[in-house]
Write a structure and sequence with these properties.
The protein is mostly beta strands and 320 residues long. It has one domain: YVTN repeat-like/Quinoprotein amine dehydrogenase (Methylamine Dehydrogenase, Chain H), CATH 2.130.10. The chain has one helix and 29 strands. It is globular.
């Protein structure tokens, strides 16, 4: 049996993919390992695990602060968010969440993080200085992926069981629009211009493209079986397809299929390097990270990690 049972028991830890990071490349990856109950820190130049941080609570979602100093990780069964000192590689604090925390995204100014709770219809706004929840906003049934626009003003949240992408004012957490997309959207990505959001629809096997200014769906791109996360690089979108063990590509202008590459078993987390040359696909069942040449769509390296890696969110970090 695949991990479908665990998928439903922990309500599907999710991704909150954001815009690529801090410089020409990312030097480290913080890979959450849900089964292994920790985070592996990967040295991406060496292609190896440099450190492991135990967390507990079945960690899944991940985000990195804009300055790269802190990594935020949701623990689905523990119902808390851990704040990890990225340089010292230790847990600095934890924040209790009154639900099963799944997706997490960091505000561009570094002051807040936004966390979705899967069983209640809310997104939680957390002040990372006071370590407290300062607001919550209603977003619909089974909120999962969450992403923030580059200007920090808007949140896009996947309301999985409503088959919708929900747009939220980041300051007030007021609901601005509910946009029908494909069936059971999960991972959400916003482009570098803050113009479009991309939702991976796990049960309709496609990607919905939403114009954030118009607050409307403007396109649909093909994906493989059970797409989970979208990454953007070089004029193309890339999707992890869980049930195929592949990453597929589509053209961002025409939404046409643009190729596919086999990776590990049950790929979930996916992010492009800041220069757009590489993709990092996190393979849950084969316990590794596939490093992909984004232009040629070929796997150039496999990096072994711990048990049940997911890395849903912004997991790449530039080192000093």
């Amino acid at each position: 049996m695949r991990r479908e049972a665990a998928f439903h028991r922990v309500a599907l830890a999710v991704l909150a993919l954001a815009v690529p990071g801090f410089g020409a490349r990312a030097d480290e990856a913080f890979v959450t390992e849900q089964v292994g109950d920790g985070v592996s820190v990967l040295d991406l130049d060496r292609g190896e695990v440099a450190a492991r941080i135990p967390l507990g609570g079945r960690p899944a979602g991940v985000a990195v602060s804009p300055d790269g100093a802190t990594v935020y990780v949701t623990s689905t069964e523990g119902k808390f968010v851990s704040l990890i000192d990225a340089r010292e590689r230790r847990v600095r604090a934890s924040i209790a969440i009154p639900d099963t925390p799944i997706g997490v995204a960091a505000a561009p100014d570094g002051r807040f993080i936004y966390v979705t709770g899967f069983f209640e219809p809310f997104v939680y706004k957390i002040d990372v200085e006071t370590l407290s929840i300062v607001a919550k906003g209603r977003v619909g049934a089974s909120p999962s992926g969450v992403a923030v626009t580059p200007d920090g003003r808007l949140l896009a949240v996947a309301a999985r069981d409503d088959d919708a992408l929900v747009l939220i004012d980041a300051a007030s957490l007021n609901l601005l629009a509910t946009i029908p997309v494909g069936k059971h959207p999960f991972g959400v990505t916003i482009d570098a211009e803050g113009a479009r959001a991309y939702a991976a629809n796990v049960e309709s096997d496609d990607v919905s493209v939403v114009d954030l200014k118009a607050k409307a769906k403007v396109g649909q791109a093909p994906a493989g079986k059970r797409p989970y996360v979208v990454a953007l690089a070089g004029g193309r979108g890339f999707v992890t397809n869980q049930y195929e063990g592949t990453v597929s590509a589509f053209d961002l202008s025409t939404f046409a299929f643009a190729g596919k590459v086999a990776v590990g078993d049950y790929p979930e987390g996916l992010q492009a390097s800041a220069d757009g040359k590489l993709l990092y696909a996190v393979d849950w069942e084969s316990n590794d990270v596939s490093v992909i040449d984004a232009e040629k769509l070929v796997v150039v390296r496999k990096i072994p990690v711990g048990d049940g890696p997911r890395a849903f969110g912004l997991f790449l970090r530039r080192t000093p």
